[in-house]
Design brief:
Shape: globular
Helix content: 40-55%
Order of helices and strands: EHEEEHHEHEHHEHEHEHEHEHEHEEHHH
CATH superfamily of the largest domain: Glycogen Phosphorylase B
Distance between the termini: 18 Å
CATH class of the largest domain: Alpha Beta
Number of helices: 15
CATH topology of the largest domain: Rossmann fold
Protein backbone atom coordinates (compact mmCIF):
# COMPACT_ATOMS: atom_id res chain seq x y z
CA UNK A 1 0.00 0.00 0.00
CA UNK A 2 1.44 3.36 -1.05
CA UNK A 3 2.24 6.19 1.29
CA UNK A 4 -0.24 8.97 1.88
CA UNK A 5 0.25 12.49 0.59
CA UNK A 6 -0.50 15.05 3.30
CA UNK A 7 -0.32 18.84 3.49
CA UNK A 8 -0.39 20.58 6.87
CA UNK A 9 -1.37 24.23 7.16
CA UNK A 10 -0.19 25.76 10.43
CA UNK A 11 0.96 29.33 10.98
CA UNK A 12 3.90 28.39 13.21
CA UNK A 13 5.73 25.09 13.53
CA UNK A 14 8.83 23.71 15.20
CA UNK A 15 11.83 24.11 14.69
CA UNK A 16 11.19 27.68 13.48
CA UNK A 17 8.84 28.42 16.41
CA UNK A 18 8.32 26.60 19.70
CA UNK A 19 5.11 25.66 21.48
CA UNK A 20 2.61 22.87 21.99
CA UNK A 21 0.91 22.65 18.62
CA UNK A 22 4.16 23.66 16.89
CA UNK A 23 5.76 20.50 18.26
CA UNK A 24 2.69 18.39 17.52
CA UNK A 25 2.63 19.16 13.80
CA UNK A 26 6.40 18.79 13.52
CA UNK A 27 6.35 15.34 15.11
CA UNK A 28 3.39 14.19 13.02
CA UNK A 29 5.04 15.46 9.83
CA UNK A 30 8.52 14.05 10.34
CA UNK A 31 7.38 10.71 11.74
CA UNK A 32 4.81 10.13 9.00
CA UNK A 33 7.48 11.01 6.44
CA UNK A 34 9.71 8.36 8.00
CA UNK A 35 6.90 5.86 7.38
CA UNK A 36 6.80 6.64 3.66
CA UNK A 37 4.23 9.43 3.54
CA UNK A 38 4.79 12.53 1.42
CA UNK A 39 4.43 15.49 3.78
CA UNK A 40 4.47 19.22 3.07
CA UNK A 41 3.90 21.99 5.62
CA UNK A 42 2.67 25.47 4.66
CA UNK A 43 3.82 27.67 7.52
CA UNK A 44 5.92 30.70 8.48
CA UNK A 45 9.54 29.72 8.00
CA UNK A 46 12.62 31.83 7.27
CA UNK A 47 12.77 30.26 3.81
CA UNK A 48 11.65 27.32 1.73
CA UNK A 49 13.42 24.39 3.34
CA UNK A 50 13.48 20.64 3.75
CA UNK A 51 13.90 19.17 7.21
CA UNK A 52 13.70 15.49 8.07
CA UNK A 53 12.15 14.49 4.69
CA UNK A 54 9.46 17.14 5.15
CA UNK A 55 9.07 20.13 2.82
CA UNK A 56 8.37 23.41 4.62
CA UNK A 57 6.91 26.12 2.37
CA UNK A 58 7.09 29.66 3.69
CA UNK A 59 3.74 31.49 3.52
CA UNK A 60 4.93 34.63 5.29
CA UNK A 61 7.60 35.05 7.91
CA UNK A 62 7.85 38.05 10.20
CA UNK A 63 8.97 36.49 13.46
CA UNK A 64 5.68 35.80 15.23
CA UNK A 65 1.93 36.22 15.43
CA UNK A 66 1.47 37.82 18.85
CA UNK A 67 1.04 41.39 20.00
CA UNK A 68 3.32 42.88 22.63
CA UNK A 69 0.61 42.08 25.20
CA UNK A 70 0.62 38.38 24.38
CA UNK A 71 -2.57 38.17 22.31
CA UNK A 72 -2.79 36.92 18.75
CA UNK A 73 -2.26 39.61 16.13
CA UNK A 74 -5.38 39.59 13.97
CA UNK A 75 -3.60 41.63 11.30
CA UNK A 76 -0.72 39.17 11.00
CA UNK A 77 -3.06 36.18 10.98
CA UNK A 78 -5.17 37.78 8.24
CA UNK A 79 -2.01 38.44 6.24
CA UNK A 80 -1.07 34.78 6.61
CA UNK A 81 -4.49 33.74 5.26
CA UNK A 82 -4.19 36.03 2.22
CA UNK A 83 -0.67 34.84 1.47
CA UNK A 84 -1.75 31.25 2.05
CA UNK A 85 -4.19 31.37 -0.86
CA UNK A 86 -1.43 32.75 -3.08
CA UNK A 87 0.95 29.98 -2.03
CA UNK A 88 -1.67 27.27 -2.54
CA UNK A 89 -2.26 28.63 -6.03
CA UNK A 90 1.47 28.77 -6.71
CA UNK A 91 1.82 25.12 -5.66
CA UNK A 92 -1.52 23.98 -7.08
CA UNK A 93 0.14 21.09 -8.91
CA UNK A 94 1.30 19.70 -5.58
CA UNK A 95 -1.70 20.57 -3.42
CA UNK A 96 -4.41 19.60 -5.88
CA UNK A 97 -3.33 15.96 -5.95
CA UNK A 98 -2.70 15.28 -2.25
CA UNK A 99 -4.94 13.01 -0.18
CA UNK A 100 -5.45 15.30 2.80
CA UNK A 101 -4.98 18.96 3.66
CA UNK A 102 -5.07 19.39 7.43
CA UNK A 103 -5.53 22.91 8.78
CA UNK A 104 -4.75 24.03 12.31
CA UNK A 105 -7.79 25.54 14.02
CA UNK A 106 -5.77 28.22 15.78
CA UNK A 107 -6.84 30.74 14.57
CA UNK A 108 -10.04 29.56 12.85
CA UNK A 109 -9.90 31.56 9.63
CA UNK A 110 -6.94 29.84 7.94
CA UNK A 111 -9.29 27.15 6.67
CA UNK A 112 -11.22 29.60 4.47
CA UNK A 113 -8.49 30.08 1.82
CA UNK A 114 -8.00 26.30 1.75
CA UNK A 115 -11.68 25.73 1.10
CA UNK A 116 -11.78 28.51 -1.48
CA UNK A 117 -8.76 27.04 -3.26
CA UNK A 118 -10.35 23.58 -3.30
CA UNK A 119 -13.54 24.94 -4.84
CA UNK A 120 -11.76 26.96 -7.53
CA UNK A 121 -9.27 24.24 -8.44
CA UNK A 122 -11.66 21.27 -8.15
CA UNK A 123 -9.13 19.74 -5.79
CA UNK A 124 -9.72 16.10 -4.91
CA UNK A 125 -8.20 16.35 -1.46
CA UNK A 126 -10.19 16.07 1.76
CA UNK A 127 -10.02 18.94 4.25
CA UNK A 128 -9.31 18.13 7.89
CA UNK A 129 -9.32 20.60 10.79
CA UNK A 130 -7.35 20.01 13.98
CA UNK A 131 -9.37 21.45 16.86
CA UNK A 132 -7.27 21.84 20.01
CA UNK A 133 -9.93 23.71 21.99
CA UNK A 134 -13.63 24.23 21.43
CA UNK A 135 -13.78 27.98 21.99
CA UNK A 136 -17.49 28.44 21.28
CA UNK A 137 -18.39 29.48 24.83
CA UNK A 138 -15.11 31.26 25.57
CA UNK A 139 -14.93 34.05 22.99
CA UNK A 140 -16.75 36.69 25.04
CA UNK A 141 -14.44 36.10 28.01
CA UNK A 142 -11.45 36.29 25.69
CA UNK A 143 -12.50 39.64 24.27
CA UNK A 144 -13.38 41.00 27.72
CA UNK A 145 -9.83 40.21 28.85
CA UNK A 146 -8.29 41.59 25.68
CA UNK A 147 -10.46 44.75 25.47
CA UNK A 148 -10.68 45.45 29.19
CA UNK A 149 -10.17 49.18 28.70
CA UNK A 150 -13.23 49.36 26.45
CA UNK A 151 -15.49 46.94 28.34
CA UNK A 152 -18.05 49.63 29.33
CA UNK A 153 -18.83 50.00 25.61
CA UNK A 154 -19.79 46.29 25.44
CA UNK A 155 -17.45 45.83 22.49
CA UNK A 156 -16.44 42.47 23.94
CA UNK A 157 -20.00 41.16 23.51
CA UNK A 158 -20.15 42.20 19.88
CA UNK A 159 -16.73 40.70 19.18
CA UNK A 160 -17.73 37.54 21.03
CA UNK A 161 -20.80 37.10 18.82
CA UNK A 162 -18.77 37.79 15.67
CA UNK A 163 -16.09 35.31 16.76
CA UNK A 164 -18.65 32.58 17.44
CA UNK A 165 -20.15 33.09 13.99
CA UNK A 166 -16.70 32.92 12.39
CA UNK A 167 -15.85 29.82 14.40
CA UNK A 168 -19.01 27.94 13.39
CA UNK A 169 -18.44 28.89 9.75
CA UNK A 170 -14.88 27.60 9.93
CA UNK A 171 -16.11 24.28 11.31
CA UNK A 172 -18.50 23.94 8.39
CA UNK A 173 -15.58 24.20 5.93
CA UNK A 174 -13.95 20.94 7.04
CA UNK A 175 -14.77 17.46 5.83
CA UNK A 176 -13.32 15.83 8.95
CA UNK A 177 -12.04 16.90 12.36
CA UNK A 178 -9.20 15.76 14.60
CA UNK A 179 -9.05 16.54 18.30
CA UNK A 180 -5.98 15.96 20.49
CA UNK A 181 -8.10 15.67 23.65
CA UNK A 182 -11.22 13.74 24.61
CA UNK A 183 -12.86 16.68 26.45
CA UNK A 184 -12.56 18.79 23.28
CA UNK A 185 -13.90 15.94 21.16
CA UNK A 186 -16.91 15.60 23.44
CA UNK A 187 -17.55 19.34 23.27
CA UNK A 188 -17.37 19.30 19.45
CA UNK A 189 -19.99 16.58 19.28
CA UNK A 190 -22.24 18.90 21.27
CA UNK A 191 -22.38 21.15 18.19
CA UNK A 192 -24.07 18.39 16.24
CA UNK A 193 -21.02 17.18 14.30
CA UNK A 194 -21.31 13.66 12.95
CA UNK A 195 -19.40 11.29 15.25
CA UNK A 196 -18.05 9.50 12.19
CA UNK A 197 -16.27 12.67 11.09
CA UNK A 198 -14.49 13.44 14.36
CA UNK A 199 -11.31 11.58 15.31
CA UNK A 200 -9.00 11.51 18.29
CA UNK A 201 -5.21 11.76 17.88
CA UNK A 202 -3.54 12.83 21.14
CA UNK A 203 -0.29 14.69 21.56
CA UNK A 204 2.74 12.64 22.43
CA UNK A 205 6.25 12.72 23.79
CA UNK A 206 9.47 11.04 22.79
CA UNK A 207 9.64 8.55 25.66
CA UNK A 208 13.05 7.25 24.59
CA UNK A 209 14.53 10.77 24.44
CA UNK A 210 13.09 11.94 27.75
CA UNK A 211 14.07 8.65 29.36
CA UNK A 212 17.72 9.68 29.01
CA UNK A 213 17.17 12.33 31.68
CA UNK A 214 17.14 11.03 35.23
CA UNK A 215 14.51 12.13 37.74
CA UNK A 216 16.49 14.09 40.32
CA UNK A 217 13.59 15.72 42.19
CA UNK A 218 14.64 14.20 45.52
CA UNK A 219 18.38 14.80 45.23
CA UNK A 220 18.72 18.21 46.87
CA UNK A 221 16.09 17.79 49.59
CA UNK A 222 14.00 20.66 48.23
CA UNK A 223 10.51 20.80 46.79
CA UNK A 224 11.06 22.09 43.26
CA UNK A 225 8.07 23.83 41.67
CA UNK A 226 7.99 24.51 37.94
CA UNK A 227 5.95 26.48 35.43
CA UNK A 228 6.57 26.07 31.69
CA UNK A 229 4.80 28.11 29.04
CA UNK A 230 4.38 31.48 27.39
CA UNK A 231 4.30 34.29 29.94
CA UNK A 232 0.99 35.75 28.79
CA UNK A 233 -2.26 36.68 30.58
CA UNK A 234 -4.15 33.51 29.65
CA UNK A 235 -1.45 31.27 31.16
CA UNK A 236 -1.63 33.15 34.51
CA UNK A 237 1.97 32.52 35.65
CA UNK A 238 1.52 35.26 38.27
CA UNK A 239 -0.71 32.87 40.20
CA UNK A 240 2.37 30.84 41.13
CA UNK A 241 4.04 33.87 42.71
CA UNK A 242 0.92 35.10 44.50
CA UNK A 243 0.31 31.57 45.82
CA UNK A 244 3.88 31.37 47.10
CA UNK A 245 3.48 34.67 48.92
CA UNK A 246 0.33 33.37 50.62
CA UNK A 247 1.98 30.05 51.52
CA UNK A 248 5.05 31.72 53.03
CA UNK A 249 2.82 33.99 55.10
CA UNK A 250 1.42 30.81 56.64
CA UNK A 251 4.79 29.14 57.18
CA UNK A 252 7.88 31.25 56.52
CA UNK A 253 10.16 28.27 57.28
CA UNK A 254 9.18 26.76 53.93
CA UNK A 255 11.41 29.38 52.29
CA UNK A 256 14.40 27.14 53.04
CA UNK A 257 13.02 24.08 51.27
CA UNK A 258 11.51 25.57 48.11
CA UNK A 259 12.88 26.21 44.63
CA UNK A 260 10.70 27.69 41.89
CA UNK A 261 11.51 27.75 38.17
CA UNK A 262 9.38 29.79 35.77
CA UNK A 263 10.38 28.67 32.28
CA UNK A 264 9.30 30.65 29.23
CA UNK A 265 9.20 34.14 27.84
CA UNK A 266 6.51 36.69 27.09
CA UNK A 267 5.17 40.16 27.85
CA UNK A 268 4.50 39.35 31.51
CA UNK A 269 8.22 38.90 32.23
CA UNK A 270 8.79 42.41 33.69
CA UNK A 271 5.60 42.13 35.76
CA UNK A 272 6.69 38.78 37.17
CA UNK A 273 10.15 40.12 37.96
CA UNK A 274 8.49 43.02 39.76
CA UNK A 275 6.36 40.66 41.86
CA UNK A 276 9.39 38.56 42.79
CA UNK A 277 11.22 41.66 44.02
CA UNK A 278 8.15 43.11 45.73
CA UNK A 279 7.51 39.90 47.70
CA UNK A 280 11.25 39.30 48.41
CA UNK A 281 11.20 35.94 46.64
CA UNK A 282 14.34 36.31 44.52
CA UNK A 283 16.13 33.74 46.66
CA UNK A 284 13.81 30.95 45.58
CA UNK A 285 12.07 32.10 42.37
CA UNK A 286 14.04 32.09 39.13
CA UNK A 287 12.69 33.30 35.79
CA UNK A 288 14.61 31.12 33.36
CA UNK A 289 13.32 32.58 30.10
CA UNK A 290 13.26 30.41 27.00
CA UNK A 291 15.58 27.42 27.37
CA UNK A 292 16.72 24.75 24.88
CA UNK A 293 15.37 21.22 25.17
CA UNK A 294 18.33 19.84 27.08
CA UNK A 295 18.03 22.45 29.83
CA UNK A 296 14.23 22.19 29.80
CA UNK A 297 14.27 18.44 30.39
CA UNK A 298 16.90 18.77 33.12
CA UNK A 299 14.74 21.36 34.90
CA UNK A 300 11.61 19.23 34.56
CA UNK A 301 13.48 16.15 35.76
CA UNK A 302 14.30 18.06 38.97
CA UNK A 303 10.69 19.14 39.50
CA UNK A 304 8.54 17.87 42.34
CA UNK A 305 5.43 19.87 41.36
CA UNK A 306 4.34 21.21 37.98
CA UNK A 307 1.90 24.13 37.95
CA UNK A 308 -0.55 24.89 35.14
CA UNK A 309 -2.98 27.64 36.24
CA UNK A 310 -4.13 28.54 32.69
CA UNK A 311 -7.55 29.97 31.91
CA UNK A 312 -7.85 27.41 29.13
CA UNK A 313 -5.90 24.54 27.63
CA UNK A 314 -6.32 22.08 24.82
CA UNK A 315 -3.86 19.26 25.39
CA UNK A 316 -0.86 20.69 27.20
CA UNK A 317 2.40 19.24 25.93
CA UNK A 318 4.40 20.86 28.73
CA UNK A 319 2.12 19.17 31.26
CA UNK A 320 2.70 15.79 29.62
CA UNK A 321 6.47 16.33 29.54
CA UNK A 322 6.56 17.22 33.24
CA UNK A 323 4.35 14.30 34.26
CA UNK A 324 6.72 11.89 32.53
CA UNK A 325 9.41 12.84 35.07
CA UNK A 326 7.07 12.26 38.01
CA UNK A 327 6.30 15.91 38.74
CA UNK A 328 2.93 16.11 40.47
CA UNK A 329 0.67 18.35 38.35
CA UNK A 330 -1.61 20.97 39.84
CA UNK A 331 -3.92 22.45 37.21
CA UNK A 332 -6.77 24.94 37.03
CA UNK A 333 -9.78 24.29 34.81
CA UNK A 334 -12.89 26.19 33.82
CA UNK A 335 -15.82 24.58 35.69
CA UNK A 336 -18.36 25.44 33.01
CA UNK A 337 -16.68 25.03 29.61
CA UNK A 338 -15.81 21.49 28.57
CA UNK A 339 -14.16 22.65 25.35
CA UNK A 340 -11.23 24.38 27.09
CA UNK A 341 -10.59 21.73 29.76
CA UNK A 342 -8.17 19.57 27.80
CA UNK A 343 -5.96 19.02 30.86
CA UNK A 344 -8.60 16.64 32.19
CA UNK A 345 -7.43 14.28 29.46
CA UNK A 346 -4.30 13.81 31.60
CA UNK A 347 -5.08 14.78 35.19
CA UNK A 348 -7.61 13.24 37.57
CA UNK A 349 -8.02 14.87 40.97
CA UNK A 350 -6.10 13.05 43.72
CA UNK A 351 -5.43 10.11 41.39
CA UNK A 352 -2.47 11.42 39.43
CA UNK A 353 -2.62 15.14 40.16
CA UNK A 354 -4.52 18.00 41.74
CA UNK A 355 -7.39 19.77 39.94
CA UNK A 356 -8.54 23.24 41.04
CA UNK A 357 -11.22 25.67 39.86
CA UNK A 358 -10.15 29.00 41.40
CA UNK A 359 -7.12 30.83 42.71
CA UNK A 360 -8.14 30.01 46.28
CA UNK A 361 -8.21 26.30 45.49
CA UNK A 362 -4.96 26.60 43.53
CA UNK A 363 -2.98 28.17 46.38
CA UNK A 364 -4.44 25.76 48.94
CA UNK A 365 -3.70 22.79 46.70
CA UNK A 366 -0.13 23.95 46.11
CA UNK A 367 0.38 24.33 49.85
CA UNK A 368 -0.96 20.82 50.45
CA UNK A 369 1.35 19.32 47.84
CA UNK A 370 4.35 21.13 49.33
CA UNK A 371 3.81 19.92 52.90
CA UNK A 372 2.39 16.43 52.22
CA UNK A 373 5.35 14.41 50.95
CA UNK A 374 3.44 11.14 50.79
CA UNK A 375 0.59 12.57 48.71
CA UNK A 376 3.00 14.35 46.39
CA UNK A 377 5.06 11.22 45.83
CA UNK A 378 2.02 9.03 45.23
CA UNK A 379 0.48 11.41 42.71
CA UNK A 380 3.85 11.89 41.00
CA UNK A 381 4.26 8.15 40.46
CA UNK A 382 0.78 7.90 38.97
CA UNK A 383 1.44 10.94 36.77
CA UNK A 384 4.54 9.28 35.33
CA UNK A 385 2.57 6.11 34.57
CA UNK A 386 -0.04 8.19 32.73
CA UNK A 387 2.51 10.09 30.64
CA UNK A 388 4.26 6.96 29.41
CA UNK A 389 1.07 5.93 27.59
CA UNK A 390 1.44 8.93 25.26
CA UNK A 391 4.47 7.77 23.29
CA UNK A 392 4.76 9.08 19.73
CA UNK A 393 5.87 5.61 18.66
CA UNK A 394 2.39 4.34 19.54
CA UNK A 395 0.45 7.40 18.37
CA UNK A 396 1.89 7.69 14.85
CA UNK A 397 0.56 4.31 13.60
CA UNK A 398 -2.86 5.35 14.97
CA UNK A 399 -2.62 8.68 13.14
CA UNK A 400 -1.59 7.06 9.85
CA UNK A 401 -4.45 4.58 10.10
CA UNK A 402 -6.96 7.39 10.67
CA UNK A 403 -5.59 9.40 7.75
CA UNK A 404 -5.78 6.34 5.52
CA UNK A 405 -9.39 5.67 6.50
CA UNK A 406 -10.28 9.29 5.79
CA UNK A 407 -8.57 9.23 2.39
CA UNK A 408 -10.31 5.98 1.40
CA UNK A 409 -13.69 7.05 2.75
CA UNK A 410 -13.97 3.99 5.02
CA UNK A 411 -14.81 5.81 8.25
Amino acid sequence: MGGLSIVYVVNTVYPFHDGGYERRFFELARRLAMRGCSVTVFTSAPRLTRYGNVNFINVCYDGGFFTRYGFRSIGKEFRFSVNLFRKLTEYRGLVGDVDIVEVNQTPPFHIFPVRFFKTLSNGRFLTVMTVHEDLMDYFEDYWRIRMHGLSPLKIDRFLGLASRSLYLNSLSCADYYISPSKPTLKSLLGHGLDRGRVFYIPNGIDVELQGRYCNTSQDNGKVVISFLGRLVPEKRPEWVIYALKWILNIDSKLMNCLEVNIIGKGPLTPILNGLVERFSLSRIVKLRGYVPDDEKFNLLARSSIFTLPSRREGFSLSLLEAMFFGATPIVTVDPFRMGVRGVLELVSHLRNGYVTYSFKEFREGLYRLIVDDDLRSKLGRKAAETAKRYDWNSIIPLAENIYRKISLGVV
